[in-house]
Amino acid sequence: MPDSKNLFERACRVLPGGVNSPVRACRSVGCDPLFVTKTAGSKMWTADGQELVDYIMSWGPMLLGHAHPAVEEAAVRAVRAGASFGTPCEDEVLLAELLCEILPSVDMVRMVNSGTEATMSALRLARAYTGRDKVIKFHGGYHGHSDCFLASAGSGMATLSIPGTPGVPETFVAGTLLAHYNDLAGVRQLFEENPEEVAAVFVEPVAGNMGCVLPGEGWLSGLRALCDEFGALLVFDEVITGFRVDLGGAQKRFGIDPDLTCLGKIIGGGFPVGCYGGKRKFMERIAPCGDVYQAGTLSGNPVAMAAGLATLRELQKQDYAALEKRTLELATELKSILESKGLPVTLNHVASIFTLFLTEGPVTDFPSASTADGETFAKYYAQMRAAGVNVAPSGFECSFTSFAHTDEDFEKTLEAARAVSL
Ligand code: PMP
């Protein structure tokens, strides 16, 4: 059987960078990717025969653990009935009903195929509903790879954006306004400078793409109030936080009522799914009920719906508080191990998510997250991986635990960390 090195060499000839999504290439930590052949629970096995305890969990979806029997069984049963129908099926209705039941702010949903599609479509809806074009997002916030969201601040002009990648016309991101996470005054300023032009504020209610950054006291409720004051929609991007920080997502945990919610990852149980939903008055604008067009050949795919439904039903039986407590214990111990090696460490944690930033902290936004020491992190990553612990290959990603992680997994992780030399 080909090993990871061999597969990566071949992959690089036919896939840009050898991968289908950039971070997987492990470039920022100076490693080559591991090719995985099998997963179960908290573990993965590579083409090289190595067993690893996984803290990436497919970048969030596998909260129940990899290859959960109930999810596998549901998906296999579904696939036997056919991979795709192109007509409605019962599981779409059941999953939509369950999402609306569990998420406090959601009356209706539309299924799509990725988180990117969810946020892109929610933005279109917000623009249509408000008749405005601009959108506020936050530095270090990630909402998928559609043009409008790929903006970074340009030349110190706080209210203007330049594209974060070639291929995005400047005009496409000119309406993307950037503020810092946890900076309400900055958001107010953007609203005041763009009167009656902002359609929506898009926020990760716990930021997960600059590492884990928690909403400060009053941040999310302040955004809600500002959106109400200036007539914009508040859109929670719960692609990571949905069903993870609480069964009812961040909106339940923090008691905030967003207008629209974007979901993905967990609701597909590992299959390609995204979804956006919200209050009926907004969602009824979506075609064919309303006039805002959005469609998808494979949207509501029966296999993905079955897997998502099985996942959510299993999650309803799980003890979130217990996993949160165990995750905090693990992360706290990891922090003290790294500190004992003379490193500055800031731990940000919520539920089954944590990031150890190698910096003094506090880490409350992208600039403070950016002070973390990437070089030392790269050494940590490589040694942990060699010892059989798969952490995310970037200091700006979260570690995820799952309901399948055992105390033995955590002990192995701590032992690996103790042995790391930095
Ligand atoms: N929003 C958030 C908060 C995400 O973390 C991601 C992906 N990591 C996306 C949107 C995009 O989702 P996808 O990769 O499924 O397109």
TrEMBL record:
Enzyme Commission code: 5.4.3.8
Signal peptide boundaries: none
Entry's Gene Ontology BP terms: protoporphyrinogen IX biosynthetic process
Compartments where located: Cytoplasm
A single GO molecular function term of this UniProt record: transaminase activity
GO cellular component terms, A-Z: cytoplasm
Record note on quaternary structure: Homodimer.
Protein name: Glutamate-1-semialdehyde 2,1-aminomutase
Cofactors (names): pyridoxal 5'-phosphate
Record PTM N6-(pyridoxal phosphate)lysine, positions in chain: 265
Keywords carried by this UniProt record: Cytoplasm, Isomerase, Porphyrin biosynthesis, Pyridoxal phosphate
Pathway in which the depicted protein is active: Porphyrin-containing compound metabolism; protoporphyrin-IX biosynthesis; 5-aminolevulinate from L-glutamyl-tRNA(Glu): step 2/2
Enzyme category, top tier: isomerase
Species annotation: Paucidesulfovibrio gracilis DSM 16080
SUPFAM superfamilies xref list: PLP-dependent transferases (SSF53383)
